[in-house]
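User: Hi! I'm working on a homework problem where we have to compare a predicted structure to a textbook description. Could you give me the structure for the chain below?
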Amino acid sequence: MSHCGQASSRLTSLVFRTLVNNHEIAVASPAYLETHGTPETADDLTHHGCIIGYSGRNAPDPRWPLLEGGWTQVSGTLMTNHVGLRVEAAKRDLGIAIALDRLVADSLASGELVWVLPDIVGRLDQARLVYPDREFLDPKVRAFVDFIAGRIEATRG
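Assistant: Happy to help. Predicted structure tokens:
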């Protein structure tokens, strides 16, 4: 049996610790929706001015994630790889944008932006640390996990 096989046979289970939950949601200004109407289905987005982001910063990506999996095509003439600019453009009535919920939370609370298609469009991404079962956890790994989790919590606080 190879050394690699022996090492993997000792690992009975893995543990994960979620560090960050990123919820992507679609948002628009009330004025934009009043002028252009509120989309009711994902297909309606092809008739709206969507503010398009980039996939891997290389090319515009006219697809938005669906909560139940998969993607929907969107259309728009404004494209940027900077999420802050997409949010600002949505605030200025230029279209519908995809953004992380934590970046638009204040704008949603104030009514400056409205959550569009909340039950249809969006995605949850998580950043996790994965390590061996706690029973066999090296104290150095535990210290590292606690340190990283503490740093991330402090920056989000």
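For your comparison, note the following. Residues 25-124 form a domain with the D-Maltodextrin-Binding Protein; domain 2 fold (CATH 3.40.190.290). The two ends are 49 Å apart (CA to CA). Good luck with the assignment!
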